[in-house]
Amino acid sequence: MLGVDFEPDRQVSLAAPLGSDLAFANRFEYTPCMVDIRKSWDKIAEPYRKRYEISTDVVHYGPLCPGEDKLHILGDINGKTVIDLGCGGGQNAIALSRMGAEVTAVDFSHEQIRLAENLASEHNAAIDFITGEISDLSRLPKAGFDIAISSCAIAYVPDIKSMFTEVYRILKPGGKFILSDMNPLQYIMDEIDGGVEFNHKYPYDPILLKWRWEFDELQRAPGFQHYVRSISCYHNALTAAGFAVSKILEPKSTPDTPHIGFSREILEEYKYIAEHIPITFIMTCRRP
Fold first, then answer.
1. Which domains does the chain have, with CATH numbers?
2. What is the pLDDT of residues 83-99, one digit of tens each?
3. Do the beta carbons of residue 255 and residue 279 sit within 8 Å?
């Protein structure tokens, strides 16, 4: 996916995200260029896995967020068909498999899928990994899954309407969709001594952020971009696709999380913000 096509009324901004050069200055560098996001994830897949430890024992919903062992969102999934959308390195897919689910996992990064397959093999987890866009699930059958889960991947998807329509299509009637992402508030605030200041107004319309993610292993930090959307933007798109939104959760930030490495980094760099707002939000939905 090279570049992004924008709707005329969409707000496009180059505000700095949490983790940009105006935030994690030792990790990131701002970039105004067009971005091949799939190629960038291919480049950082291995160093990301090494730096940001993620548990394969417990399903995670995002940084500084309690895991499934504390939140009990999924319930008993033994024997259920579950699809992990934006599976990354496969940690959640393996955790879901440990819970007894029959798991399919999708990611657009070839390198992420390769690492996920290797990790699943190490854990003797039988998972069907698919390389592809999570907004295009046309290769999957209608009403084939009991549960869909997507943890902190939705921000990289330009067309959430198409994605939610596809997720609705592949879920069985009564099926669950659990969506999580990082709180939009954190992206429009910078931490200063004793508090915060705003670097951008609230994302009433989606904001496109472009930046570079630095790793010691890489000579040049690859460019990234993602969308900052309001929670209501996701809610309204989900209901437009036909979902009934059951709950919106904003768990209190905690270092006791399966998403270990990134949580540690946020606490080191943005302790005040992490202590005062939820870093991750979760939406639980049902296909009627």
1. 28-286 (3.40.50.150)
2. 999 999 999 999 999 99
3. no
